Amino acid sequence: MVMYVFNIEKKSIYLEQFENQDTKEVYTRLFRKSFETEESMQKDLYNFDDSEFENFFLNTLKPKTKESARTYCNVLSAYVQWAIDNKYSNHLINPIKRRQAYFYEFVQNDNKMYISLEEKDAIISTLINKQDSFIVEALWNGIEGSQVHEITNMRIDDLNLTENTITIRNNEGAKKRVVKVDKESNLIELAILANREQVYYKMNGTVDYSDNLKEYVELSSSKYILKGAKLNQENGGEKVSRYTVYNRLEKIRMLEDNEEYTKALTSKYIMRSGMIYMALRLYERDGELGRNQIEKICAKYNMKYKWSLRDFLNVDILSELYPSEMKRIQAKIATEE
C-alpha cells in the first residue's frame, strides 16, 4: 500500500476487494490526493459532510472537465457507500450518491489548456521561424522524450521522405524507434525548412532594434534540425540544449496573438492536444473512446496506459474542442444504432 494514505488500515481493506489493477490505481490516486485534507481534519473521506466534500472538490481535486468531476463523484460515492454498508461511516445515507450533476459546478476551466487542430495550424501560420513551427508540430505528433531530447537529438538524416517516417533517438543519440508521420501533417517538411534556416528572428520579428541590436541572430550550419546561434567560424553545429526549446516555447507564448494560449503552449499540453485530436479521429472511426482507443494513442505517443489519461481523453473534451465535428459524429453514431 502506498505511503501518505490516511486511515490506511480501512483503505487497504477496501482496495483488497478489487482484482482489476486499473480500478485500484484510480482509488489509490484519489486517496493520495485526499491525505492532507483528511489528516488536517483527522477525518476519513467516508465521514465528510456536504460542505467538506465541496471544499475537497473545489480546493484539492479541482476537476478540469465534467468527465473528471463525474469520475471523482462516482469513485467517492462507491467508497462512502462501502463504508456505510460495513458500518465504518457515521452516515446512514450516502451524501454524494447520484450527485454528479451538482459537482459539475466545481469544474475549473478558467484558462484554455488545449488547442484544436485548427488553432494549432493558425498559431504555426503566424510564426516566422520554421525552427519554432517545427517544435510545435513535433510535440503535437508525440515527439518529445525526457526533457525534449527527442526533439533536440533529431538530425536531418533521420528524415525519410519516401516512407514519411522519422527515426527517433534516445538521450545518448542512439536510434530508438521509427515514427510514421500522419499524411495530414507537414512535420517532415517543417523539419527540413527548419534545418535550412540561416537566421532566427527574435520575438517572431517584432523586437525593436537599432544599429547596435539586430532583429535576428545567425544560425550555425548543423546536422541537427534545431540549431543554435553562430558564435564564430570554428565553432557551431552542436546540438542545442533543452533550454533552447523551452525558451522558444516561452517566446511563442509571449506573442500578443497567443495571449489566450499561455497554458496550452507548453510541451505537455501541446502533446496532449495532439493526443486529443487522435482521439477524435478514433472516436469517429470506432464510435467509442474506451481503453482500446486510448491504448492506440499511447502506442503512438510512446507512453504506458494510465487511467488518468481519461481526464483529458474523453468525450467532454472532444466536444469542447471540436463541437461541430462531434455533433456530426454523434449524429452518425445515433443513426447506426
What characteristics describe this protein?
single chain, 337 residues, mainly alpha, 3 domains, three-stranded antiparallel beta sheet, two-stranded antiparallel ribbon, 14 helices, elongated
Question: What features would you describe in this structure?
Answer:
By secondary structure, the chain is mostly helical. It folds into three domains: 99 residues; 126 residues, no CATH class; 70 residues, no CATH class. Helices cover 49% and strands 6% of the residues. It has 14 helices and five strands. The strands form two sheets. Strands 1-2-3 form a three-stranded antiparallel β-sheet. Strand 1 and strand 2 form a beta hairpin. Helix 7 crosses helix 11 and helix 11 packs across helix 12. The radius of gyration is 24 Å and the shape is elongated. The relative contact order is 0.10. The mean pLDDT is 91.
